[in-house]
Amino acid sequence: MSKRKIGVLVMSYGTPASMDQIEAYYTHIRRGSPPSEEQLKALTDRYEKIVGGFFPLRENTNRQVEALEQTLNRDYPELEFKCYQGLKHASPFIEDGVKQMAADGITEAVGVVLAPHYSTMSVGGYMKRAQETAEPLGLPIRFVKSYHLHPKLIRALADRVTAALDRFESKEGVRVLFSAHSLPEKILEMRDPYPDQLLASSKAVAELAGIGDWQFAWQSAGQTATPWLGPDIMDVLETIHREENVERVLICPLGFVSDHLEVLYDIDIECKQLAERLGMHLERTASLNTDPLYMETLSDVVYKQLTEA
After folding, report:
1. Torsions phi, psi of 245, nearest 5?
2. Is 183 in the same domain as 142?
3. Nearest Cα to Cα of residue 58 among 264, 287, 260
4. Rounded mean pLDDT of the chain?
5. What are phi and psi of 153, to 5 degrees?
6. Nearest-angstrom CA–CA distance, 303 and 299
7. Burial class (CB within 10 angstroms; exposed 0-12, middle 13-18, buried 19+) of 244
8. Is the same domain home to 295 and 185?
9. What are the two backbone dihedrals, phi and then psi, of residue 36, each rounded to the nearest 5 degrees?
10. Residue 128 and residue 221 in one domain
11. Which of 171, 269, 282, 304 could bond to 275 as cystine, CB 3.0-4.6 Å?
12. Is the pLDDT of residue 309 over 60?
């Protein structure tokens, strides 16, 4: 008897796979409008500074997709799972992943995003693109909207906070800053759950790790005419140093699940350079990447979609 086969569309933001793909990637982000030479150079320079232009997100995402497939097939051997990638701004695009599932004869699918917190502008947009592609193909697809308080996710993050605190001479006086990618302020008018879900995750991680001295900060805001959610993490670092004499800071970027530009550049380079100028000791928690607890979190929430009516 053949096993029930499930296609899993694993969606994420995407990144170029090599330096020569940066312009096409940036153009896609800008909805078909090519970046200026200055804008292109600024982004290219950032990638160059991350281990000489190595693109960790693409490799990390590939490994996460492979590890999730293995975890699902291990945890639920009565089923057969096959994972497909669907990226927002790079190939294979979300539409490509859905079409490949249909071409492979998949008749039952679940979509999940490599981002624990739901926003209509991020996760919601991924789901919409996948649904619009799946419907004409006759492929039913269910979606995981968020998993920001999954116990295994919270434990994985709390373990990282605890481990990173050991890098300080003393844990006394260490301010923990939880961070995530900023979004345009207009999501507040839409009563978007994104900010509340991030605060809920931060609170849960802090409680499990026994942390009392923490706060939340936004990072990596886009350069647009409309305002984005703040305060920005760079401003927060300056403020807590100037007004509260905080000298030791641990950043836990819990809005991100793998090492990529916003972590390896925005935190590891920009934030650390600022901290050095201010005379602060700054550390960062390790990213989740393919942590078994994170893979089990994704496995759990995907399977749950198959068991709910």
Report:
1. 60, 30
2. no
3. 260
4. 95
5. -65, -45
6. 6
7. exposed
8. no
9. -70, 165
10. no
11. 282
12. no
| Residue 269 scores a pLDDT above 80 | yes
Binding site, annotated residues for Fe(2+) = 181, 262
Other C-beta atoms closer than 10 Å to the C-beta of 94 total 28
Cβ neighbours, 10 Å, residue 158 = 20
Indicate the Cα dihedral angle 91, 94, 99, 104, nearest 10°: 80
The tens digit of pLDDT for each residue in 148-199 reads 999 999 999 999 999 999 999 998 999 999 999 999 999 999 999 999 999 9
Per-residue model confidence (pLDDT) at position 56: 65
Q: pLDDT at position 47, please?
A: 86
Exposed, middle or buried: residue 168 (CB in 10 Å: 0-12, 13-18, 19+)? middle
What digits encode the pLDDT tens for the residues 104-144?
Answer: 999 999 999 999 999 999 999 999 999 999 999 999 999 99
C-alpha distances (whole Å) from 77 to each of 107, 111, 159, 205 are 19, 20, 29, 31
The residue range of the domain holding 58 is 4-147+290-307
- Please tell me what DSSP assigns to residue 166: T
Q: Could you read off the pLDDT of 62-82 as tens digits, one per residue?
A: 999 999 999 999 999 999 999
| 197 & 235 share domain | yes
- For the domain that residue 197 is a member of, what is the CATH number? 3.40.50.1400
Q: Which residues pair with 143 in a beta bridge?
A: 111
Residues present in the chain in total: 309
Same domain? For 155 and 109 the reply is no
Q: Is the pLDDT of residue 90 over 80?
A: yes
Mean pLDDT of 271-280: 98
In the annotated binding site, the residues are: 13, 30, 46-47, 126, 181, 262
What Å distances lie between residue 45 and 42, 166, 277, CA to CA? 5, 33, 22
What is the CB neighbour count within 10 angstroms for residue 174? 21
122 and 15, same structural domain? yes
Total domains, the chain: 2
Binding residues for Fe-coproporphyrin III: 13, 30, 46-47, 126
